[in-house]
Amino acid sequence: xxxxxxxxxLRRAREExxxxxxxxxxxxxxxxxxxxxxxxxxxxxxxxxxVVGSAGLEVYGQAALLRSVVVAPELRGxxxxxxxxxxxxxxxxxxxxxxxxxxxxxxxxxxxxxxFRECSLEDFEPAVRQSYQYRGVSTMPQLREWLKxxxxxxxxx
Length: 157
Hints:
Blueprint: E1 9-12, H1 18-27, E2 42-47, E3 50-60, E4 63-71, H2 80-94, E5 99-104, H3 108-112, E6 117-119, H4 132-139, H5 141-146, E7 148-153
Parallel strand pairs: 4-5
Antiparallel strand pairs: 1-2, 2-3, 3-4, 5-7, 6-7
């Protein structure tokens, strides 16, 4: 009985999770900036006291940036990334967000399943251009070669 694998639990992030979220992001070369500023819209997967996944949302009025979607390597290929993304997208809808943007290196196909489509930096609306990620990508042309910008229009349903 003691050998059963437990599923990680999904919950809102707490301040004490930040170092573990940052470590997960850094291991994947994702920017670990500003998590504390958006903690109320960050979600984590926790397994035995260890954070094994995260997803965050930076809300800018009717627009948002989906960021920091990461799952520990040993848990990839299952439904964990979906759980995190679903939580962030539900939060976006609950907050009246109508457009969600993101940057991705390798997960464009994953996000396309949600309806995200590639877009250009010029497609980002002014409010979202305040984000650390947008400012970083827009001022470092070499990043544009590796990152895809994507956008999703949320329906009112």
